[in-house]
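Please discuss these two lines.
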Amino acid sequence: MTEALRPLVLVAPSGTGKTTVARALVERHPERFAFSVSATTRPPRSGEVDGIHYRFLDEAGFKALIDGGELAEWAVVHGRLYGTPLASLDSRRLEGRTPVLDIDIQGARQVVERIPGSVAIFLLPPGPDAWITRLVGRGTETPVEVRTRLETAMDELERAREFEEFVVNDRLMETVESVVAVFSGTPSAGVSKLRAEGLCSELKRGARDWIRQTSPDPGTPDSTEM
């Protein structure tokens, strides 16, 4: 693995639109950026192709990568192993393209520690109203599930202080170009750490308010549990 490779790592609290930003970035600048191919022990879903969408492995094969130090990061998610092979990152370098990693905070910290020069950008929603409306507006989750996602997101926002680069995801294409500029060495294209910390506080306060307002009264059964 060469130190000349500088992966771009995108992290964000749930509901920020991180995956949408990552996809738009790769689609807008395909000559410069490309997704890395992650490894996983989960079975392929319909339409997924080994080596393109994921590198599908059994548990023994995945653990061999761990033991051999061949992963930039890895984690257990819902009982399945997921990780980023160093070989996948290196293949993007040989193509002349920057690998884009859309991963969680734990994985991002592993990549930054493992690969010198990695650029990790923490994406933030523009404010609590838009953020919570987006989460609730999906309509695919119960109030209990939304509360769980918000509680997880608050934990992720607490860890934002571990990062140095921040971009607010307000308008998609502007966000993409801000990410490119920050990656290219123009920190002013993002937001300052001080502003990011203030926004994180607003987001956490908004999440706590929503959880409090939607929590059932003591002694009242939660409709999602009936």
